[in-house]
Amino acid sequence: MDRIRIKGGRPLEGRIPISGAKNAALPLMIASLLTGETLELRNVPRLADVGLLLRILGNHGVDHTVTGKRPGQTSETGQTILLDASSVIDTRAPYELVSRMRASFWVIAPLIARFGEASVSLPGGCAIGTRPVDLLIMALERLGVSIEIESGYVQAKAPKGLKGAEIVFPKVTVSGTHVALMAATLADGETVIENAAREPEVVDLADCLNKMGARVSGAGTSRIVIQGVSRLRGATHTVMPDRIETGTYAMAVAMTGGDVLLEGARPEYLQSALDILSEVGVDIQANNEGIRVRRNGAKLRSVDVTTDPFPGFPTDLQAQFMALMTRADGTSRIRETIFENRFMHVQELARFGAHIRLDGDAALVEGVETLTGAPVMATDLRASVSLVIAGLAAEGETEIHRVYHLDRGFEALEAKLSRCGAEIERLRAA
Ligand SMILES: CC(=O)N[C@H]1[C@@H](OP(=O)(O)OP(=O)(O)OC[C@H]2O[C@@H](n3ccc(=O)[nH]c3=O)[C@H](O)[C@@H]2O)O[C@H](CO)[C@@H](O)[C@@H]1O
Ligand SMILES: C=C(OP(=O)(O)O)C(=O)O
Q1: For the chain, how many helices (H) and strands (E)?
Q2: For ligand 2, is residue 20 a contact (CB within 6 Å)?
Q3: Where does 334-403 have alpha helices with state H?
Q4: Does residue 270 share a domain with residue 225?
Q5: Pocket mutation for ligand 1, best pick of 338, 361, 408 (most atoms within 8 Å of C-beta)
Q6: Helix (H, G, I), strand (E, B) or coil at 86
Q7: Overall number of domains in the chain
Q8: CB neighbours of 150 closer than 8 A, spacing ≥ 6?
Q9: Is the pTM of this model over 0.95?
Q10: Is residue 208 among the annotated active site residues?
Q11: What are the pLDDT digits (tens) for 315-345?
Q12: In terms of Cα–Cα distance, which of 417, 326, 318 is closest to 365?
């Protein structure tokens, strides 16, 4: 298995191009199943999750073409993928594929909406909590889908098509909102989603669906209204920039010091995290090229954080922020409210000499003067990048094992960081 080796202690200086968002690209690719015409997606990041989803879609009979680079694109700033679901032959999504990536379960929505049946294995994904799919099933049932769970598969049937309904989510769920939204586009009549997720990735999906002929309004608010249509057509859509990648590199610069322009980043997608970074003592300036992040040698201040659905502080930046707080002045209390088991990075950060104590759903991080490089193990996607952030600031050498987690969600990580002066390299498995 590949490893990543980092020699810490160098400030980051330069420019980092922000890739298309993994968490927007995945539902957009899945939405291609809603139409028999071609969906052209631009700025799709080159990531393991994208490759796996192409295989899953291919298994249903979706053809895809990856086109060459566009002018101005570098090898780490996106690809264009044409998806053609005109000849879907299989509405079954097997365990072998779905168990490897959580979002692949969402194919259930376009399959049931367009073909009236689907059989999808219960999902797997990052080990950050139990992550049930009860709310996704509730939403589909509200739309008239009959569901049975047999031998680990969700068997969905709606031979007469879907019927618009009111769907009230008892808690905010991104996956539930994506699934309800996609399914409702082809339902008969009006669907109202109450307490919908307001994440920018939901808005990106709704924008693309509208280009495909759907009638969705209110995305980005907690009430989304969908007027069902009988069919959707092909469209061209550009994937939004990745707000989690943006926040991750902003925290890396905060950690090492330096001056980096995050090219193409959009501040409105992560304002709560940028506000926290300002409180910590980082200089953040948005301009028409992106977001410039600077920190001189001044000590980082410790700040308390609680994760929340958008527009709150994202859970997907919690581990990275914890890495940053390991070197702040004082103690920071970081509370995780979205996933019950998202503290796997704590024991790995301790290997660098960090002082972190768990207290229920919170971690108390007492800043230390120096971190020391160590061998560490990536446990999930965002946890693994928190180890990269710690390694960049640690004295000496760090080696990160199980980097396949990183490859799920960070395009060209080593190239982007080393161009800004980091000493980071991938040691390929023999
Ligand atoms: C591919 C993708 O976009 N993944 C993101 C998505 O995950 P995902 O869409 O899986 O996260 P959700 O917003 O659905 O989950 C939020 C909470 O609701 C719970 N829940 C969810 C569905 C359900 O049927 N029942 C239930 O109880 C979950 O266990 C969790 O505690 O949003 C999360 C929250 O911003 C992010 O951390 C993930 O990176
Ligand atoms: C948790 C994540 O992904 P997934 O929902 O696919 O597990 C993530 O992107 O941080």
Answers
A1: 14, 24
A2: no
A3: 345-350, 381-393
A4: no
A5: 338
A6: coil
A7: 2
A8: none
A9: yes
A10: no
A11: 999 999 999 999 999 999 999 999 988 999 9
A12: 326
